[in-house]
Amino acid sequence: MRRWGQALVLAAELPPSVERLYAHFLHTPASVTRYAATLRELPWSVSAARQGHLDQRTLGGDGKARRLFLLVTCTSIGLQRLRELAPRPERLKLVYHGLDFGHLPPPRSARPRRDGSDAADPVTILSIGRKVEKKGYDDL
Hints:
Strand order of the largest sheet: 1-2-3-4
Strand content: 5-15%
Shape: elongated
Number of strands: 4
Largest sheet: 4 strands, parallel
Number of helices: 4
Radius of gyration: 20 Å
């Protein structure tokens, strides 16, 4: 009932210009998105990143995946698992995380590669994410 209520609010407050909906996770956000999309008669899409949590219940036990416009995953293992479970495998898409720099001009000057072994010339790494064990910050 809680998700239904959230979907009612979302559907009521969506501007008329919205043509489709997208949820980033295939659980609670997907349920809310699915209900709102149904109410507004809009196509909807979702991403499923953690293949370990994919099963028939989360994917389609409640009919969630049957009306999907697109189901995206970010790993080939996830895609393989989704192909086993998805009622409409033609709607699956593999989209790796990252940026495609191919369309950008080359750097003005090439910098020498560094491995961080020189204390006077350290390597700086920026990582953005939740500070939880599964993100691997202890390894980083």
